[in-house]
Amino acid sequence: MARRHIPQRTCVGCRQVQAKREMIRIVRTPEGRVEIDPTGKKSGRGAYLHPRRSCWERALKDGRLEYALRIEALREEDRMALVAYASTLPEDEA
């Protein structure tokens, strides 16, 4: 029996490739808002991050998220929501 295809995505923060289901999708909606997409099904331009605080901090600090989402800059309320979510994540996986 053939193996089932597992979609792979690259983390915007650390550039490591991992299974899509193990990552968190950030989406730029058609209205221009940047949101966390837990289902992975919202329409818009998406970027993926590991569920680790270090990846989120790097992506937000270095402008990698803006580049991946093809936007000039994150709106302040979007940035604050992402930072608040990142603060709930573990620092690193054991």
Automatic annotation (TrEMBL):
Residues annotated as domain YlxR: 9-74
Residues in coiled coil: none
Pfam family, one: YlxR
Transmembrane segment boundaries: none
Organism ancestry: Bacteria, Bacillati, Chloroflexota, Thermoflexia, Thermoflexales
Protein name: YlxR domain-containing protein
InterPro entries: YlxR (IPR037465), YlxR-like_sf (IPR035931), YlxR_dom (IPR007393)
